[in-house]
Amino acid sequence: MKQFLSAHDVFDIDALVATGLAYKADRFRDKGLGAGRRIGLLFLNPSLRTRLSTQVAAQHLGMEAIVFNVGAEGWALEFADGAVMNGSTVEHVKDAAPILGQYFDILALRTFPSLQDRAADYSERTLNAFVRYSGIPVVSLESATLHPLQSLTDVLTITETFKEQRKPRVVLTWAPHVKPLPQCVANSFAQWMTAWGAADFVVTHPEGYALKEEFITGATLTSSQDEALEGADYVYVKNWSAYEDYGKMPPASGNWMLTLDKLKATNNAGVMHCLPVRRNVELSDEVLDSPHSLVTQQAANRVWAAQAVLSEILKQA
Ligand code: CP
Question: Which residues does the annotation say bind N(2)-succinyl-L-ornithine (predicted)?
Fold first, then answer.
């Protein structure tokens, strides 16, 4: 693996999941693989799980991890070609990224979308600039449109918990929120579910919240959450803002917050969420605190997903 920006960078998802689960069984099995190598973790936006799990994963491989909160502590970066930098930006990515490519063996980056300019966000301008100018393998720690480390974790969590000899029914359901959120987690989960192909995948959301077509091709779509939940083995709960009326929050009719009562229609479903979660807005206390909830196991698995990805890149570097 030369980079990890989306499901398209993975040749065999099941094999990568198996690598992650092997690390879960024996975290130090490749403890010398990263010796003498260094990863730079650049955050333009906040994080708890992604930041810490990737550092822990690097340590398990004997690799040094350096975190830089570039969004809060770095120079304001310019991305536009030909910019006359007489405004607020101080350093062009063309100058910053090649230096990072000298300091590190792998560069990992978190960069959220603006939710103001769909074309700019969906061009992944920031992530792609670091790919283009750093000259070293880049790992997405969540970009403007995707969150592949989260999605690999999600597939790993379903793989390790599903015990039946059939495809699981996996439902991605929109949930309410107090402010507009990116589509990244939903886009990415949908992309990985369809690329994986080992689940019957259903997406449900209110009118106005359709995801970009390329991510949901192959999924079953319904605007009825009740219909979607029928017989579900997993319910992945996530809010996202509108893709069509970009970044907006069209009013959603009905109650979309998942409750224990709604879960009665499922096959005793496991409930997933990437976290952080707004309790009693996105997901009820009664669900999060019930045996249905997989969120802690899911978040803990972030380490093994990150370790699998870093090890694959280190093996090819
Ligand atoms: N799920 C996730 O990416 O968590 P953080 O934003 O805390 O990293």
Answer: 142, 177, 238, 278
